[in-house]
Structures are given as C-alpha cells and as structure tokens.
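To illustrate the input format used throughout this study, we show a single complete record. The first block contains the structure-token representation of the backbone; no residue identities are included at this stage. The design step must infer an amino acid for every position from geometry alone.
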C-alpha cells in the first residue's frame, strides 16, 4: 500500500504525519532505521501571486498591462496611467523577498517532517512541488498511484466554527 501524507506549516498536518506513522506503520518501531518506500511526504508551495490595487475599476486594461511591464523593467513602485494611478506590488525586490521567505518556509516544513520520521527511525521519501495545493496533491496522487492520502483540511478555528 502506497501512502502519501500532505504536509504544510500547520500543526494539523504534522499531527496527520505523526498519526500515520503511529497507526498505519506501528510495526516499524523496532529500533532500527527503516527506509519506507511506501510512504511519501509531500509539501506543495503555493504559487507566488502578483497583485494590482486600483483606485478606479474602469481602467483600460491594456494600458494597465503596458504600465506594469514598464514598471517591472524599471523596478518602480508607482505607475501612472491616463485613467488612474495604480500602486503596483510587483517589484523585483519584493518578489525575490517573498520567494526567499517561501523557500525558508519549505525548508522548515520539510525539516520538521523529516525529524518526525527520524524520531520513529523511519526514512520517508520527501517531495516538494509548486502550485495550488489541492490541484497538485490530487494530480500527484493520481500520477503516483497512491492508495491512501492523509492530510488535514487546513481550516482555521474561525472558519470551522462557521461551517
């Protein structure tokens, strides 16, 4: 049976990994380190989103696109069009900072998942992919012919309360 555990920075996903190791593979606690080929730990980095904030919704989109392209080339923070002033949060330095933070987050998540496995003397295959988590996870499950997917739903306490 091939099992995949989807993890992120949440406590719930790490608990899902711990639960999987403790309940689906209890026979592994023999004290010897075991390479478990049937367990895959997957972390999906969300795509970096670029946003435009406009004061006027009736902006000619072609002029906005051209202005944004010019702003990217010049690494500017403000773009002025004939229709309106648009604040552009699409600077190269901001994007590189966000990417660096995402990489640090991924390293933290993968390290923590690996430590959870090591504490139980288990070596699991770890995969990091980019994209929208729900899409990437479902595609990977299908592609790798996974029998069981374990994870958490990712809802905050407030969101669960309203459900």
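Output of the design step:
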């Amino acid at each position: 049976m091939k099992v995949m555990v989807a993890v992120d920075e949440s406590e719930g996903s790490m608990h899902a990994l711990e639960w999987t190791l403790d309940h689906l593979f209890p026979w592994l606690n023999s004290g010897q380190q075991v390479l478990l080929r049937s367990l895959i730990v997957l972390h999906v980095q969300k795509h970096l989103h670029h946003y435009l904030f406009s004061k006027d919704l009736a902006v000619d989109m072609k002029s906005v696109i051209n202005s944004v392209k010019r702003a990217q080339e010049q690494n500017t923070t403000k773009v002025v069009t004939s229709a309106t002033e648009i604040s552009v949060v699409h600077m190269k330095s901001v994007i590189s900072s966000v990417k660096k933070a995402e990489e640090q987050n991924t390293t933290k998540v993968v390290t923590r998942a690996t430590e959870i496995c090591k504490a139980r003397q288990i070596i699991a295959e770890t995969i990091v992919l980019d994209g929208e988590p729900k899409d990437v996870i479902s595609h990977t499950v299908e592609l790798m012919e996974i029998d069981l997917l374990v994870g958490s739903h990712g809802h905050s306490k407030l969101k669960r309360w309203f459900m």
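Structural context for interpreting the output: Residues 73 and 92 are 9 Å apart (CA to CA). Residues 51-90 form one domain.
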